[in-house]
Amino acid sequence: MDYQADAQLLAGKVIVVTGAGDGIGKEAAINYAAHGATVILLGRTAAKLEATFDAIEAAGYPLPAIVPMDLKQATAADYRGLAETFARQFGRLDGVLFNAGLLGVLCPFDQIKEKEWDEVMQVNVKSEFLMTQALLPLLRKTAKEQGEAVLLYTSSGVGRKGRAYWGTYAISKFAVEGMMEVLADELENTGVRVNSINPGGTRTKMRASAFPAEDPMNLKTPADLMPLYLYLMGKDSRGENGKTFVAQPK
Ligand code: NDP
Predict the structure, then answer these.
(1) Full set of structural domains in the chain with CATH
(2) What keywords appear on the UniProt entry (predicted)?
(3) Annotated catalytic residue: which of 61, 79, 169, 231?
């Protein structure tokens, strides 16, 4: 995307990034901080979140917060606790980038195991439903006071067009798209904007596990995608609601 974000685009904002310890989420967290946001780094592996924290601190950006959380295990009560902590510590929440995701096992439909289905659905869909529900009051309050708040979900090419053997992952991304559209319609007059991004094939661990024979050097890097991630989190995308944005159009 041909977009140059203002250096202060996200100054003063508080933004949650899930899966902030690796891949696209790590890059987005660092970029949001570079544009002035206090970023809440949420993810499974504390050491990876600490590495993202260190990169932000070393660059002199606003100090982030770390929330180690396994989305496979977290409950509605955990998300309500998070919302209370954010309200107490920051008094606002300007945006959430739902980025954490699980690929699961790629296999023929009739070989999908129930346990693997449940895990992928838990991480990719249910955790996002529960976290969104818990954070909505604070997002609504922020939108009222600051003019807007942003929910950004992460989709996939297989979240709009199913593909053989992509089983639960593809179905989970269709559900993410559905959640985005329902919320965008429902929140239309609240100042909370809701969109999704389909990153396209990107040089990360998840992509490498889905396409082990591919040369990663032929892929875009997470850094290449950041103009779109910044655009959708900031005021320049005001008016955009209920859409899927494709980071790498053909
Ligand atoms: P990575 O595998 O590199 O990163 C995924 C992130 O999600 C990691 O930080 C991981 O944490 C976190 N995560 C996974 N499971 C859990 C869990 N149970 N609890 C908390 N955090 C968890 O993936 P990408 O950066 O490639 O993917 C980011 C998003 O983009 C995903 O939603 C993916 O589906 C989507 N996407 C990616 C594409 C690509 O080509 N890369 C293409 C289309 C969509 P940890 O490292 O600690 O395990």
Answers:
(1) 14-237 (3.40.50.720)
(2) Oxidoreductase
(3) 169
